[in-house]
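Q: How would the structure tokens look for this protein?
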Amino acid sequence: MQTNEFKESGIRKSIGESQYKAKLDQLNDKVRHVLTRTTNTLMGFTDHSLDHSLGVENAYDIILNEDYNLLNDTEKFLLISATLLHDIGMVGLKDDLKRENYETYRRDAHNYFSKDRIIEQAFILDLDHDEAVIIAQIAEAHRKVPLETLEEQIVYGLGGSVRIRLLGALLRFADELHVTKGRTSRLEMTTLELDEESMKHHKRHERVRGVGRLDNQPGKIFISAIAEDWNMEKLMLGMVDEIKAKHEQVKKILDDNQIIVNEVILQLHAEQIVEKEIFLELAEKPLSAQELNEKLKHRQPEVIKKILQSMLEYKYSIMNEGKFSLLRNEETCRKIFNALKGSHRIFEFIESQYLKDNIGHIFDEIAYRIYGHRIDNGDRKDRLLLTRNSPIVLDHLLNKQDMDPHFAQLNRSVVLDLLILNGYMQDVSKFPSLSKDEEIILAMQNIQNSLHTGLSPFLKLVQHLDPEIQEQSKKRLEESFEKKN
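A: Here is the predicted structure in token form.
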């Protein structure tokens, strides 16, 4: 989806056609190419190019609530200039690569580097010395610098004044608010070999739908985002906590200058998470809507109601005596498993009463339909035990049903046993606690013994299916036929 964060900002338009406006437009072109190199030594970082600077600039429209008369034209010029240049210190040098932890060095000190570069390059940037010094102070203050060390107000020019502290506070807050999806892309995330910390920042930017005020609550700034799992929800909560912390740093300064932002609020669209939580609750026992609301009191009742209704419509649940119950069939089991697959809470489902009660008949049906095999007595119990305790085996059983049912000569029970043992061992390598139960060890040994018996004829059959071997057999048969004739 295209975003509107890089359009010409309202604050820039409000300057009119003065010399300041022309100078800012020229500054865009001057810094564009150098800012494309803000990731030259920080390759995993989210966007800090000119697009980011323009996104921050657009955030002023939100903070000022489009009341541009709160700043004079000189302040607007100095603020926007500092915004365009605030990350120029992130452009690394070749010598940085010789430093230990060079990424941390460049990232942590980049606001100070930005200040130095603005002053050093003032002539190229077409800034006079006084402009460059003030712009550098504002840019430096976008992080770390105590805002109270900036002068509250200075006289500037003939009869004018500039509120440096306010401009530093505005840049700090606006920089933190530019968290929208324009700062990354799915292609970028899949192409770069990102470390865990970098991926966290990319992912949460991608899931932010917008930042702004609402007409009915003008004193608040809202962050609208989507979270499809608990990890993303945690990332979003952490991101908004960071924004709130920056808001606390600047709130008094903004208030003193009649810029009202009372609160920053996260609007999180979390229907997929709520669905997962409802599945987990109902996997333990049937519950009424009221009981679910009590257990999920941190979620919106309207969302819970909507999901419960959709579960009835999709035939994943039924209602009996005012309580919702999960249907006991393969399709419902697959839906729940796939919703939780890959999350840390998959093991709650594995240990649930629902799976314990239903895995038997689901396993029997799939084993017969796909693998043409009926398993009885202790052998069945052993295979169910490993299947129920392994996400990988459950994934194969419920989703990857790719065994050719027309291949009648093949002893498909061997394929099933290999699948179970291999999948379970992969899970044990990641979660050793899965193998602590002595009963599970005995089950593994039983399947291993069965494989010793069944694998030899299976391998011989597979060997004879080799095209080269088949061709050789065909030639021998033809030669034998010719000799007889």
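The beta strands are 154-156, 160-162, 208-214, 217-226, 263-269, 317-320, 323-326.

Residues 181 and 343 are 24 Å apart (CA to CA).

Upvote if useful.
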